[in-house]
Amino acid sequence: MPMLMSRCKHLGCHTLVPREQVFCDAHKSDIQLYEQRKEEQRKHIKRHTKSYNKQVRSQSEERRQRESFYHSKQWKKIREYVLTRDNYLCQYCLRFGIIRPSKTVDHIVPGQVAPDLITDVDNLSTICYSCHRRKTEWEQGFYKTGYRNDKQKVKKDILLKNISDLPNFSK
Ligand SMILES: [Zn+2]
Ligand SMILES: [Zn+2]
Question: What does the pLDDT read at residue 47?
Answer without folding.
Answer: 82
